[in-house]
Write a structure and sequence with these properties.
Radius of gyration: 27 Å
Low-confidence stretches: none
Shape: elongated
Helix content: 25-40%
Largest sheet: 8 strands, mixed
Distance between the termini: 49 Å
Length: 336
């Protein structure tokens, strides 16, 4: 089914628990990117091998420099957006963390964040191979061993347990440790959240990580959870501000329409914050009905031969502003 794809950069307020979209661009994949994605998908498909592979490292293989990263076309596009945003707000808002979803839980995205002088927070696959740092004795020859034993998610050491909560019959245990991944050149600050059904003993886990080794587990988990506020921005833009049904077809017009829709999400939130001080249930539909009524009253009054008294004018505004509202509380609307 034909559709549109957008990538948005948003500022997330930890205090207000909200996301504010700042920059958005339409994702138009080039032919080279489509070929690369198809080749990556084909590489994951299992292929029957003609001869069994011998155990151990293949003869003639060489070590790879993990610090030498070839960025994907997708990350090149995101990096250009990120650098433009950082240059725009550098003197106003200092940023520390870049939060991306699990699609970007890889070394390439980690390296991109480092180049932009940011710490990455993301999610690893649930079957990721993580290793403890090796702390045993030196063998006496060759380089110092780096990787210790492989992490067993079913037997996580109690010494790394940070919190345990039980809600109903669901137990949540949170662990934090500095672990190694063979695709990353540096150790990761890893937070593992394990949920267990105490009745059936079924369990599942989520692996979050950050390049900031000093970030506490609760903040790392909280920052990643706040990323979902961006989904609410797109929901509001589709439901209230026309992102779902605009009729533009050219690339520039589509980008402008998306920018306008998400810009109205920010504007409406700023207006709602004032109105909700006196009316906590005031909604976006109430705001749109009120502004529409204000426009109708203003245009009607311009057609009158004589100007009305301010008291009568205020009563008209207050009365008409309630038409079409979802909630019954009448707002005060000044005619000025």
């Amino acid at each position: 089914m034909p559709g549109l794809s957008f990538f948005a950069l948003s500022l997330v307020s930890v205090q207000e628990r909200r996301s504010f979209p700042i920059r958005v661009e339409q994702v138009v994949r080039s032919e080279a990117e489509k070929v690369a994605r198809k080749a990556k998908a084909d590489a994951k498909k299992p292929t029957p091998s003609t001869a069994p592979r011998r155990p151990g490292r293949p003869k003639g293989s060489k070590n790879k420099d993990k610090a030498a990263v070839t960025p994907t076309l997708e990350l090149v596009r995101i990096k250009s957006m990120l650098e433009a945003l950082l240059q725009l707000i550098a003197e106003c808002i200092p940023l520390t963390y870049l939060v991306l979803d699990g699609h970007f839980g890889n070394h390439n995205a980690w390296h991109m964040a480092q180049q932009c002088h940011l710490h990455l927070i993301s999610k690893l696959r649930s079957d990721s191979a993580l290793y403890w740092p090796y702390d045993g004795p030196y063998s006496g020859r060759g380089p110092q061993r780096k990787y210790g034993s492989k992490l067993d998610y079913r037997r996580l050491p109690e010494q790394y347990l940070k919190a345990t909560t039980v809600k109903g019959h669901i137990q949540t245990r949170t662990y934090q440790a500095h672990l190694l991944h063979k695709e990353f050149s540096h150790s990761l600050n890893v937070v593992i959240i394990v949920k267990t059904n105490l009745q059936t003993q079924a369990w599942a886990h989520v692996i979050l990580f950050s390049s900031d080794r000093e970030l506490p587990y609760d903040k790392l988990r909280d920052y990643y959870c706040l990323r979902f506020q961006i989904e609410f921005n797109f929901r509001d833009a589709k439901q209230y501000w026309g992102l779902e049904d605009f009729m533009n077809i050219t690339e520039a017009a589509v980008t402008n329409a998306a920018h306008l829709s998400l810009f109205m999400v920010n504007v409406s939130y700023r207006l709602l914050r004032d109105f909700r001080q006196s009316d906590p249930e005031y909604s976006v539909l109430d705001l749109k009905a009120q502004c529409r009524a204000y426009k109708y009253v203003t245009e009607t009054i311009k057609m009158l031969p004589e100007k009305l008294e301010p008291v009568l004018l205020g009563q008209i505004f207050n009365k008409v502003a309630c038409l079409g509202r979802i909630h019954a509380v009448q707002p005060y609307f000044s005619p000025g």
